[in-house]
From TrEMBL:
UniProt keyword list: Hydrolase, Signal
Protein name: Amidohydrolase
Classification via Gene3D superfamilies: 3.30.70.360, Zn peptidases
Record flagged with keyword Hydrolase: yes
Pfam families: M20_dimer (PF07687), Peptidase_M20 (PF01546)
The organism of origin for this protein: Flavihumibacter fluminis
Source organism, top-level taxon: Bacteria
InterPro entries in the cross-refs: Amidohydrolase (IPR017439), Bact_exopeptidase_dim_dom (IPR036264), Peptidase_M20 (IPR002933), Peptidase_M20_dimer (IPR011650)
Signal as UniProt keyword: yes
NCBIfam families to which the protein is assigned, alphabetical: amidohydrolases
Signal peptide positions on this chain: 1-28
Sequence ranges assigned to domain Peptidase M20 dimerisation in this UniProt record: 240-329
Length: 464
């Protein structure tokens, strides 16, 4: 699940009520599900494999949860992934894009399927009170210290990846082709996928370009609910830093200074007009200032002020409009303060991602697989799932390739009883991503693993 990006993973209240209804109906569906799946020997095999591995997977999850690592710092987590993949018989590559890991499992002629799980955590203090809660505090790049936790479910993503990788190695009779698993760093700052590709994922490190890319993300809806939909699912995003430069001085003599804090404050207010007055109101776009950093003393005007901006968009023309608008506002403020050109604000473009657009055919295949495990009223589809302003860099693992076919879907990880109580209390959710009380119910570990396996096996039935 970090900035506000993953909070948009959360579905609308109306959809959440649908998922809650699904959970209430789960018991009623139990016999029906059994009838549908009892003749499916493949599902029986999956249930047996995952069932025998569940206790071990839960322990892996708890360990990763208790030892979270920020983006590009995931050395311990990456080592766990590499060790487990090697033990399962994969050809493992490490150090891709600093801390990325990839494993290759060849099994004859057939499609090349890639599965991605992100590994990084959030700079959030955990408040769950779990016996395996994170108590870690880390030093960040700027020298500051911050408590960290997995508040977006990436610990579950890594565990699902490991469970999936093990199962695929034991089920070679069920598929033909090449299976690749990728432990990706730094999803939170939207940098990791591009970092792996630019570091030679498909060249220097020898990973085959996939025909299909798959992945899942946790969602704070009940365990047993899955969201699978084709088309544009998530917005594009940009992370931008703007440094306003001025002339520092004593707070008692502001006329002798050029105050960058005042410039930054003026810019923050003017930025909002870009969306409200320049972007077509029938189109979705968001411009958020998530951080302002300047000065340290009451009586000192600093020389610089830093603004951290996040953009969300679906139309690249709107993206360009917002970026150009920010630049013009910055320069206009600098001009009004009579700053020399060398003190004009600096813009730094950081992580970015294009809108995520799930392939129709691949999504249909995933749906076919998941339907073998769950009844339809526990699977949310396009009509229940409007596109969200949240963003991902998952698809940037393939977006520069000739073939860029992918599907990204969601798996519920909230305890159904906790979710039910939250609804009863008038809440939309029991907890949100990037909050200290974010919690993965342990029953979601085997369930998510099965959902992953079924999606991948069905993808292998598609033509190369």
């Amino acid at each position: 699940m970090k900035n506000v990006r993953k909070s948009a993973q959360v579905l609308s209240c109306a959809v959440l009520l649908v998922t809650f209804t699904c959970c209430l109906n789960a018991q009623a569906q139990k016999k029906k599900t059994a009838k549908v799946t009892s003749s499916d020997s493949r599902l029986a095999e999956i249930n047996k494999l995952v069932g025998s591995d569940s206790a071990n997977l839960v322990e892996i999850f708890k360990d990763i949860h208790a030892n979270p690592e920020l983006g590009f710092m995931e050395t311990r987590t990456a080592a766990i992934v590499a060790k487990e993949l090697q033990a399962a018989g994969y050809d493992v590559k490490t150090g891709i894009g600093i801390t990325g890991v990839a494993g290759i499992l060849k099994n004859g002629e057939g499609p090349i399927i890639m599965w991605r799980g992100d590994m990084d955590c959030n700079a959030v203090k955990e408040t769950t009170g779990l016996p395996y809660a994170s108590t870690k505090v880390v030093k960040r790049e700027d020298g500051s210290e911050s408590p960290v936790m997995h508040a977006c479910g990436h610990d579950a993503h890594v565990t699902w990846l490991i469970g999936l990788a093990r199962a695929m190695a034991q089920m070679k009779n069920a598929w033909k082709g090449t299976f690749i698993v990728v432990g990706q760093p730094a999803e939170e700052p939207i940098l990791g996928a591009e970092a792996m590709v630019k570091d030679g994922l498909y060249t220097k490190h020898g990973i085959p370009e996939p025909d299909y890319l798959l992945g899942i993300h946790s969602a704070p809806v009940p365990v047993g609910v899955v969201a699978i939909a084709s088309g544009v699912r998530m917005a594009g995003t940009d992370q931008i830093d703007v440094v306003f430069k001025g002339i520092g001085g004593h707070g008692s003599n502001p006329q002798l200074s050029k105050d960058p804090i005042v410039m930054a404050a003026a810019a923050i207010m003017q930025y909002q007009v870009i969306v409200s007055r320049a972007v077509d109101p029938q189109k979705a776009a968001v411009l958020t200032v998530g951080s302002v950093q300047a000065g340290s003393d009451n009586n000192v005007i600093p020389a610089t002020a830093l603004i951290k901006i996040n953009l969300r968009w679906f139309d690249e023309a709107d993206r360009n409009l917002m970026i150009e608008g920010i630049k013009k506002i910055n320069e206009g403020i600098a001009h009004s303060y009579n700053l020399p050109k060398e003190l004009y604000p600096e813009m730094k473009m950081k992580g970015f991602a294009y809108p995520l657009d799930n392939d129709t055919t691949l999504t249909a295949a995933v749906l076919t697989g998941v339907r073998k495990l769950l009844p339809d009223n526990q699977i949310l589809r396009e009509k229940q799932l409007p596109a969200v302003m949240g963003s991902e860099d998952f698809h940037h693992l393939v977006i520069h390739n000739n073939r860029k076919v992918y599907c990204y879907y969601n798996v519920g990880i909230a305890n159904p009883a906790v979710f039910a109580q939250a609804i009863k209390d008038g809440k939309a959710l029991p907890f949100n991503a990037h909050n200290g009380d974010f919690q993965v119910d342990l029953a979601g570990i085997p369930l998510g693993t099965k959902v992953a396996i079924l999606g991948v096996l069905e993808a292998f039935q598609l033509k190369k």
